[in-house]
Amino acid sequence: PRASIHERKAVVSTQSTSAVKDNKRKSNFEDGSDPKRGKPNRNYFGASKTELKGTTKRVFVGNLNYEIDDQKIREFFKDIGPIEDIYWLTNRDTGEFRGCGFLRLDTFEAADKAVLEKTGKDLLGRGLKIWPLV
Questions:
Q1: Cα(77)–Cα(101) distance, rounded to whole angstroms?
Q2: Backbone angles phi, psi at 114, to 5 degrees
């Protein structure tokens, strides 16, 4: 007897799932790169920015909520140290906030601490992205 439509769908869905599983990179392809295994070790100073540790007071802050203001960002960073200057990035034509900005903290150590301790932390419902700047 013929399989019902539900049985045929089940066969098709299991075949497509196993095809996707079989397509994952399981071994080296002799191209010099290793197979993917889990998340990489996070270095928040970035591979090319480690030389900036201890040399800058400025940081880029991204993924900010559009409800952010100077008072809220100062409150968020109060345990790191005082913020000397805040510059919000805006659209040149419309003046709309772009969700990111630059902060200048009072010491090099405060900037390093902000990058290490506040990256990924939640502020107004969004995880921050923070990088040191020259």
A1: 14
A2: -65, -45
Q: What does the alpha-carbon distance between residue 33 and residue 75 come to, in Å, rounded to a whole number?
A: 44
E strand spans, 63-128: 83-90, 97-105, 122-123, 126-127
CA distances from 129 to 37, 120, 132 (A): 24, 6, 10
β strands within the chain, DSSP E: 58-62, 83-90, 97-105, 122-123, 126-127, 129-132
Contact by Cβ (8 Å): 102, 30: no
Q: Phi then psi for 81, rounded to 5 degrees?
A: 150, 170
What does pTM read for this prediction? 0.63
Element (H, E) at 107: none
Q: How many CB atoms lie within 10 A of CB 14?
A: 10
Rounded distance, CA 48 to CA 37, Å? Answer: 23
> Please, are residues 25 and 36 in contact by the beta-carbon 8 Å criterion?
yes
Give pLDDT tens digits for 99-111.
999 999 999 999 9
CB atoms inside a 10 Å sphere around CB 128: 20
